[in-house]
Backbone:
């Protein structure tokens, strides 16, 4: 029972990271119907920026803020330059471009920073927490990770639901033609969508890097699992992204805990295959009647 | 009334997919009037509106709004010049609520205070929308949707309103209500309307002028009452 | 319709009565919308039957029923007495029903000839395994298919373009290739969906001649908007409006029928009806063509 609690709580923390990546993917998919294969690489890159800033200033939060700011900017720049030309082309073009971007970013990081594993600081203490005498299996940092992603998800929800920018974003995503007829500058909305995705991805990067260490390919497996989480939840559903992330995180933690950590990657991929075979539209799949 | 027409289309040639739907169309819409554009399917009526609102680039010709040349501008900019277009099929964003659809229409034009006022105006004029404000727009019936998209287009206080086949799919009684609404808008607010309709008689019942398109060309352009009484209307329309 | 000779070794030569396409009381509903309402009509063999009507009248839905894309809620369709309703499209294709689509619908990566050959694959006699294993049977089949496809292209006058890709052909030529693709199965019923769309005035007479020519071997059913074409090419015309058949007869009879004019131009003075309008809340529009009140 003790182990069960520990695995569950630990899984939630990791699951929130997958949820963050999943959220970024869903944001971009909903807005532009493109699957951003470079989402993980973008997050890796912004984490290196944070690493550099922390190195220079000695201040974690300066690095944290820098990563988020660069994430926002990077997302916007990428959409405007590289993605815009392929938005209305056959889907394969966008796949090629985003995979190319992935390779480019990882190569660039390797050139600038080298391939060695760097250790990346955590925001808070990583010693295990206890409830009385019960070891909970999570640390204060883990709680911070979960809270940060949850806050970001809620922030996005508020943005979409209650602001004019959010209304425009949704309109541009749901019905581009009607939105243009109402004066919405859909191009800017797509850029904004990518910028937000870049921001959330950057958050995921700094949150998970203390555990995975930082190196050019460090976000690759996180990306795959984030993608799996997005598919489980349904690529169109932000709520699904978060729930999918949690389910996956907890499930994989059980696998790692009870069966052995070397089985985790296999299970992750198996989960992806299973969901694509059984319910490819995801658990929260919506048909024509989307509720907002 | 200004001398220049609210909307002028000059010798426009346009089309897409290898098909030239408009082959030199000219028409002018005086301010504060309703002009009906009629013709059978394939005549080019919808292409005319999508060309005016900027989704299709004319290969030749000019389009002006109150004298301002709009010819090669993008839809988002044309809308901001004071033109509103309610497309064929209505264009209701079904994933949003009624109120969100309306608010969306007001965003570019008004600041927060203006939006609230515009929304209040819309609800005053269209109580049925007020009653449905929180509902998903996808749950509205055909007639209700048509009212919604007209109200939504009006949120930005346009100079000229383009309406594409508002009667399509609606019961005759509802068509009469929609047509009555359009006429009242012209009478009470001086709105200029370019109305594309398949149902010639209802459109001519409220229009000031009628233009008939056939195969991408204007084959008749006269006072609406005269056109309605014209024995040759069927000939213009159907070719027999 | 049994003519008693079904026990013969060879199938009886197609007589007039075998190829009559009959549509009886077909009704199609999509949710609350009645797309077709008890429509009945007959298409005689070796004749061109036209279907016209305003936007939204149900013309394409009717074609979709005839080629099996849509199942009618009630009513039936039969060809030469054999019931077709409910059969899937590929079965209808092998029974001799062929259709062209609105727009063109050619496969971009295949040449004109290959496009036409895709139309005939239901007639290949060798199956999957011989093709996979490259048996001689499959090669023979392929050669025969090629011949037939070339003949179809020739029939519509574009045999010279056989090796070209669709992107290299003018719009009018692409439409002909699509027509050849429908013809290669030597259908008994040919359904043409707006064959004149996108063609210029100058190309119409040729299309008209082609359609007349095609009717020598099949019943041709044409959905079109171009009245001049329909009036000159059809022997019978059916007019749909709001899902109902409102006229059915010769072109001359249809032209003279006031219900037809009304359908296209609208009925008298609906604009004068002052409904309670938008200011009085209880007079909410009910919407929906069948007058069902309330939400959709």
Residues:
């Amino acid at each position: 029972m003790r182990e069960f609690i520990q695995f569950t709580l630990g899984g939630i923390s990791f699951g929130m990271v997958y949820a963050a990546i999943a959220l970024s993917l869903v944001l971009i998919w909903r807005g532009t119907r493109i699957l951003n294969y470079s989402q993980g690489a973008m997050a890796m890159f912004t984490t290196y920026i944070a690493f550099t800033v922390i190195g220079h200033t000695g201040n974690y939060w300066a690095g944290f803020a820098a990563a988020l700011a660069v994430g926002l900017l990077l997302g916007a720049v990428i959409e405007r330059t590289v993605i815009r030309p392929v938005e209305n082309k056959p889907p394969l073009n966008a796949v090629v471009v985003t995979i190319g971007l992935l390779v480019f970013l990882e190569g660039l990081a390797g050139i600038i920073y080298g391939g060695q594993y760097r250790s990346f600081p955590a925001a808070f203490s990583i010693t295990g927490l206890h409830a009385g005498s019960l070891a909970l299996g999570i640390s204060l940092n883990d709680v911070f990770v979960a809270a940060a992603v949850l806050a970001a998800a809620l922030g996005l929800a508020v943005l979409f639901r209650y602001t004019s920018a959010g209304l425009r974003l949704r309109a541009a995503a749901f019905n581009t033609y009607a939105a243009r007829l109402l004066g919405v500058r859909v191009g800017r909305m797509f850029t904004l969508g990518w910028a937000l995705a870049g921001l959330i991805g950057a958050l995921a990067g700094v949150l998970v890097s203390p555990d995975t260490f930082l190196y050019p390919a460090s976000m690759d497996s996180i990306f795959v699992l984030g993608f799996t989480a997005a598919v489980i939840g349904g690529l169109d559903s932000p709520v699904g992204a978060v729930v999918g992330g949690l389910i996956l995180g907890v499930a994989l933690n059980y696998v790692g805990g009870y069966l052995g950590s070397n089985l985790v990657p296999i299970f992750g991929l198996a989960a992806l295959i299973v969901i694509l075979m059984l319910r490819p539209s995801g658990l929260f799949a919506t048909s024509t009647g989307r509720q907002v | 009334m200004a001398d220049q027409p609210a909307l002028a289309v000059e010798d426009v040639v346009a089309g897409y997919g290898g098909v030239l739907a408009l082959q030199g169309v000219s028409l002018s819409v005086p301010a504060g009037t309703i002009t009906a554009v009629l013709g059978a399917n394939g005549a080019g009526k919808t292409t005319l509106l999508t060309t005016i609102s900027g989704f299709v680039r004319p290969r030749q010709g000019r389009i002006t709004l109150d004298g301002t040349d709009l010819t090669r501008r993008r839809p988002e900019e044309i809308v901001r010049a004071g033109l509103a277009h309610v497309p064929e099929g209505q264009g209701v964003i079904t994933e949003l609520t009624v109120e969100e659809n309306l608010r969306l229409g007001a965003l570019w034009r008004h600041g927060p205070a203006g939006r609230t006022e515009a929304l209040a105006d819309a609800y005053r004029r269209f109580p049925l929308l007020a009653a449905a404000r929180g509902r998903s727009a996808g749950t509205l019936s055909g007639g209700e949707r048509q009212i919604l998209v007209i109200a939504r287009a009006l949120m930005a206080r346009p100079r000229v309103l383009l309406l594409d086949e508002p009667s399509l799919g609606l019961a005759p009684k509802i068509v009469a209500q929609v047509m009555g609404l359009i006429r009242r808008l012209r009478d009470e607010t001086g709105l200029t309307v370019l109305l594309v309709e398949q149902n010639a008689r209802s459109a001519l019942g409220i229009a000031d002028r009628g233009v008939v398109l056939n195969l991408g060309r204007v084959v008749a352009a006269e006072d609406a009452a005269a056109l309605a009484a014209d024995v040759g209307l069927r000939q213009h329309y159907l070719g027999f | 319709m049994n003519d008693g000779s079904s026990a013969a070794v060879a199938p009886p030569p197609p007589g007039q009565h075998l190829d009559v396409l009959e549509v009886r009381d077909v009704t199609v509903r999509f949710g609350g919308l009645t797309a077709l309402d008890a429509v009945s009509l007959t298409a005689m063999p070796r004749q061109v039957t036209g279907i016209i009507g305003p936007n939204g009248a149900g013309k394409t839905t009717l074609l979709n029923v005839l080629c099996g894309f849509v199942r009618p809620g009630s009513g039936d369709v039969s060809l030469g007495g054999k019931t077709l309703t409910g059969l899937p499209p590929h079965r209808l294709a092998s029974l001799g029903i062929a259709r062209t689509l609105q727009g063109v619908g050619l496969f971009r990566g295949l040449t004109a000839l290959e496009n036409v050959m895709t139309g005939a694959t239901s007639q290949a006699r060798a199956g999957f395994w011989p093709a996979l294993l490259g048996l001689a049977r499959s090669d023979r089949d392929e050669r025969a298919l090629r011949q037939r496809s070339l003949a179809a292209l020739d029939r519509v006058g574009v045999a010279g373009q056989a090796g070209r890709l669709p992107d290299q052909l003018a719009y009018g030529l692409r439409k002909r290739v699509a027509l050849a693709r429908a013809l290669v199965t030597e259908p008994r019923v040919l359904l043409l969906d707006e064959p004149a769309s996108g063609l210029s005035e100058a190309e119409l007479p040729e299309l008209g001649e082609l359609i007349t020519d095609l009717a020598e071997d099949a019943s041709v059913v044409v959905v079109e908007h171009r009245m001049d074409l329909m009036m000159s090419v059809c022997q019978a015309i059916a007019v749909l409006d709001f899902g109902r058949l409102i006229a059915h007869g010769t072109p001359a009879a249809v032209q003279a029928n006031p219900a037809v004019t009304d359908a296209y131009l609208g009925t008298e003075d609906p604009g004068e009806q002052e409904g309670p309008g938008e200011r009085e809340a209880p007079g909410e529009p009910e919407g929906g063509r069948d007058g069902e009140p309330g939400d959709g």
Summary: Chain A is about 75% helix and 5% strand. The first strand of chain A starts at residue 128 and ends at 131. Residues 44 and 69 of chain A are 14 Å apart (CA to CA). The radius of gyration of chain A is 19 Å.
